[in-house]
Write the C-alpha coordinates for this entry.
Amino acid sequence: MSIEDFPNVQKINEPTQRIKPSQLVFHLCIFAVALLGNCAGCILVSESMIPLYLDSILTIMVTATSGLGAGLMCAVLSNGILTIFDYTMLPFMSCHMLTSFLAWSVFFSSSRRKAQYGRMNGSKKYYEIDAFLWAGLWSALSNAILGNIISDVLFSSVTTPKIDSGILSVYTAVPNLVFATYIVGFLTNLTDKMISAVISYAGYKLCIKLYDVIILRREK
Protein backbone atom coordinates (compact mmCIF):
# COMPACT_ATOMS: atom_id res chain seq x y z
CA MET A 1 0.00 0.00 0.00
CA SER A 2 1.36 3.41 -0.91
CA ILE A 3 0.26 6.99 -1.47
CA GLU A 4 0.07 6.28 -5.20
CA ASP A 5 -2.84 3.93 -4.50
CA PHE A 6 -4.92 6.92 -3.46
CA PRO A 7 -6.80 8.01 -6.61
CA ASN A 8 -6.27 11.74 -6.12
CA VAL A 9 -2.50 11.51 -6.46
CA GLN A 10 -1.23 11.99 -9.98
CA LYS A 11 1.80 9.88 -10.78
CA ILE A 12 4.70 11.59 -12.48
CA ASN A 13 4.16 11.64 -16.26
CA GLU A 14 0.93 9.64 -15.93
CA PRO A 15 -2.74 10.73 -16.14
CA THR A 16 -4.86 10.92 -12.99
CA GLN A 17 -6.66 7.65 -12.19
CA ARG A 18 -10.46 7.53 -12.43
CA ILE A 19 -11.89 7.35 -8.95
CA LYS A 20 -14.15 4.39 -8.07
CA PRO A 21 -17.33 4.71 -5.98
CA SER A 22 -15.78 2.84 -3.06
CA GLN A 23 -12.74 5.11 -3.16
CA LEU A 24 -14.95 8.20 -3.28
CA VAL A 25 -16.84 7.05 -0.19
CA PHE A 26 -13.54 6.40 1.56
CA HIS A 27 -12.28 9.90 0.79
CA LEU A 28 -15.56 11.45 1.91
CA CYS A 29 -15.23 9.60 5.21
CA ILE A 30 -11.69 10.93 5.65
CA PHE A 31 -12.95 14.43 4.88
CA ALA A 32 -15.78 14.14 7.42
CA VAL A 33 -13.40 12.88 10.13
CA ALA A 34 -10.95 15.71 9.40
CA LEU A 35 -13.73 18.30 9.55
CA LEU A 36 -15.03 16.95 12.85
CA GLY A 37 -11.50 16.66 14.22
CA ASN A 38 -10.70 20.28 13.39
CA CYS A 39 -13.88 21.55 15.03
CA ALA A 40 -13.49 19.29 18.07
CA GLY A 41 -9.85 20.30 18.56
CA CYS A 42 -10.64 24.01 18.46
CA ILE A 43 -13.63 23.69 20.80
CA LEU A 44 -11.64 21.56 23.26
CA VAL A 45 -8.76 24.02 23.66
CA SER A 46 -11.13 27.01 23.69
CA GLU A 47 -13.29 25.60 26.47
CA SER A 48 -10.25 24.52 28.51
CA MET A 49 -8.44 27.84 27.84
CA ILE A 50 -5.35 26.07 26.47
CA PRO A 51 -3.32 28.67 24.49
CA LEU A 52 -3.49 26.80 21.17
CA TYR A 53 -5.80 26.79 18.15
CA LEU A 54 -5.99 23.17 16.90
CA ASP A 55 -8.55 24.22 14.29
CA SER A 56 -6.39 22.62 11.58
CA ILE A 57 -5.37 19.50 13.49
CA LEU A 58 -6.27 17.14 10.61
CA THR A 59 -6.07 19.49 7.62
CA ILE A 60 -2.56 18.28 6.73
CA MET A 61 -3.83 14.69 6.83
CA VAL A 62 -6.75 15.28 4.47
CA THR A 63 -4.45 17.24 2.13
CA ALA A 64 -2.03 14.30 2.04
CA THR A 65 -4.72 11.71 1.35
CA SER A 66 -7.24 13.59 -0.77
CA GLY A 67 -5.38 16.48 -2.38
CA LEU A 68 -5.31 20.27 -2.32
CA GLY A 69 -8.99 20.75 -3.18
CA ALA A 70 -10.13 18.65 -0.25
CA GLY A 71 -7.67 20.38 2.06
CA LEU A 72 -8.88 23.86 1.07
CA MET A 73 -12.52 22.83 1.37
CA CYS A 74 -11.83 21.37 4.81
CA ALA A 75 -10.18 24.64 5.84
CA VAL A 76 -13.10 26.75 4.60
CA LEU A 77 -15.79 24.58 6.19
CA SER A 78 -13.91 24.16 9.47
CA ASN A 79 -13.43 27.88 9.94
CA GLY A 80 -16.91 28.64 8.67
CA ILE A 81 -18.51 26.35 11.24
CA LEU A 82 -16.26 27.59 14.05
CA THR A 83 -17.01 31.21 13.11
CA ILE A 84 -20.75 30.58 13.28
CA PHE A 85 -20.37 29.25 16.82
CA ASP A 86 -17.97 32.07 17.80
CA TYR A 87 -14.86 29.94 18.28
CA THR A 88 -12.79 31.82 15.71
CA MET A 89 -13.05 34.80 13.35
CA LEU A 90 -13.58 34.68 9.61
CA PRO A 91 -10.40 36.58 8.55
CA PHE A 92 -8.29 33.80 10.05
CA MET A 93 -9.70 31.41 7.44
CA SER A 94 -6.90 32.63 5.17
CA CYS A 95 -4.33 31.19 7.63
CA HIS A 96 -6.05 27.81 7.55
CA MET A 97 -6.18 27.78 3.75
CA LEU A 98 -2.49 28.69 3.66
CA THR A 99 -1.77 25.68 5.88
CA SER A 100 -3.41 23.38 3.33
CA PHE A 101 -1.63 24.97 0.38
CA LEU A 102 1.81 24.77 1.99
CA ALA A 103 1.21 21.17 3.06
CA TRP A 104 0.26 20.29 -0.51
CA SER A 105 3.39 22.06 -1.80
CA VAL A 106 5.59 20.04 0.56
CA PHE A 107 3.93 16.75 -0.44
CA PHE A 108 4.12 17.56 -4.14
CA SER A 109 7.79 18.47 -3.82
CA SER A 110 8.44 15.27 -1.87
CA SER A 111 6.78 13.14 -4.56
CA ARG A 112 8.76 14.79 -7.36
CA ARG A 113 12.02 14.45 -5.45
CA LYS A 114 11.45 10.76 -4.77
CA ALA A 115 10.52 10.14 -8.40
CA GLN A 116 13.59 12.02 -9.60
CA TYR A 117 15.92 9.92 -7.51
CA GLY A 118 14.14 6.67 -8.26
CA ARG A 119 12.93 6.02 -4.73
CA MET A 120 9.22 5.66 -5.50
CA ASN A 121 9.26 1.94 -4.79
CA GLY A 122 7.73 -0.17 -2.05
CA SER A 123 7.31 1.52 1.31
CA LYS A 124 9.09 4.63 0.06
CA LYS A 125 6.09 5.63 -2.05
CA TYR A 126 4.08 7.10 0.79
CA TYR A 127 4.88 10.32 2.59
CA GLU A 128 7.08 10.02 5.63
CA ILE A 129 7.05 11.89 8.94
CA ASP A 130 9.62 14.44 7.75
CA ALA A 131 7.23 15.71 5.06
CA PHE A 132 4.53 16.27 7.67
CA LEU A 133 6.94 18.04 10.00
CA TRP A 134 8.11 20.33 7.21
CA ALA A 135 4.48 21.04 6.33
CA GLY A 136 3.85 21.91 9.98
CA LEU A 137 6.93 24.12 10.21
CA TRP A 138 6.18 26.13 7.05
CA SER A 139 2.56 26.47 8.14
CA ALA A 140 3.65 27.71 11.56
CA LEU A 141 5.95 30.36 10.11
CA SER A 142 3.44 31.58 7.53
CA ASN A 143 0.49 31.51 9.93
CA ALA A 144 2.48 33.40 12.55
CA ILE A 145 3.21 36.21 10.08
CA LEU A 146 -0.22 36.35 8.42
CA GLY A 147 -2.15 35.75 11.65
CA ASN A 148 -0.23 38.45 13.51
CA ILE A 149 -0.81 40.93 10.70
CA ILE A 150 -4.56 40.17 10.75
CA SER A 151 -4.63 40.40 14.54
CA ASP A 152 -2.68 43.66 14.60
CA VAL A 153 -4.44 45.42 11.72
CA LEU A 154 -8.05 44.24 12.13
CA PHE A 155 -8.31 43.55 15.85
CA SER A 156 -5.63 45.78 17.43
CA SER A 157 -3.90 42.63 18.76
CA VAL A 158 -7.06 41.63 20.67
CA THR A 159 -8.42 38.25 19.53
CA THR A 160 -9.24 35.55 22.10
CA PRO A 161 -8.67 35.53 25.90
CA LYS A 162 -6.47 32.40 25.82
CA ILE A 163 -4.00 34.11 23.44
CA ASP A 164 -4.42 37.62 24.78
CA SER A 165 -3.29 36.49 28.25
CA GLY A 166 -0.01 35.30 26.72
CA ILE A 167 0.45 38.61 24.91
CA LEU A 168 -0.20 40.48 28.16
CA SER A 169 2.41 38.39 29.97
CA VAL A 170 5.07 39.15 27.37
CA TYR A 171 3.99 42.80 27.22
CA THR A 172 4.50 43.06 30.99
CA ALA A 173 8.12 41.97 30.56
CA VAL A 174 8.73 43.85 27.31
CA PRO A 175 6.34 46.83 26.96
CA ASN A 176 6.04 46.67 23.19
CA LEU A 177 2.66 45.48 21.90
CA VAL A 178 3.88 44.63 18.40
CA PHE A 179 6.76 42.55 19.77
CA ALA A 180 4.49 40.78 22.27
CA THR A 181 1.90 40.00 19.58
CA TYR A 182 4.42 38.58 17.14
CA ILE A 183 6.47 36.53 19.59
CA VAL A 184 3.38 34.96 21.19
CA GLY A 185 1.85 34.38 17.77
CA PHE A 186 5.00 32.64 16.54
CA LEU A 187 5.40 30.39 19.59
CA THR A 188 1.70 29.52 19.64
CA ASN A 189 1.62 28.69 15.93
CA LEU A 190 4.83 26.67 16.12
CA THR A 191 3.49 24.51 18.95
CA ASP A 192 0.05 24.26 17.38
CA LYS A 193 1.20 23.26 13.89
CA MET A 194 3.82 20.76 15.04
CA ILE A 195 1.21 19.01 17.19
CA SER A 196 -1.16 19.05 14.23
CA ALA A 197 1.55 17.65 11.93
CA VAL A 198 2.27 14.70 14.22
CA ILE A 199 -1.44 13.92 14.71
CA SER A 200 -2.04 14.25 10.96
CA TYR A 201 0.80 11.81 10.27
CA ALA A 202 -0.70 9.30 12.69
CA GLY A 203 -4.08 9.74 11.00
CA TYR A 204 -2.47 9.37 7.57
CA LYS A 205 -0.84 6.08 8.55
CA LEU A 206 -4.19 4.85 9.85
CA CYS A 207 -5.86 5.86 6.57
CA ILE A 208 -3.29 3.81 4.64
CA LYS A 209 -4.00 0.72 6.75
CA LEU A 210 -7.76 1.14 6.48
CA TYR A 211 -7.54 1.73 2.73
CA ASP A 212 -5.57 -1.48 2.37
CA VAL A 213 -8.05 -3.49 4.43
CA ILE A 214 -11.34 -1.97 3.27
CA ILE A 215 -10.71 -1.05 -0.38
CA LEU A 216 -7.75 -2.89 -1.88
CA ARG A 217 -8.44 -6.34 -0.43
CA ARG A 218 -12.06 -6.18 -1.54
CA GLU A 219 -11.00 -5.37 -5.09
CA LYS A 220 -8.62 -8.31 -5.31
In short: Residues 177-219 form the longest helix (43 residues). Residues 1-5, 7-16 have pLDDT under 50 and may be disordered.
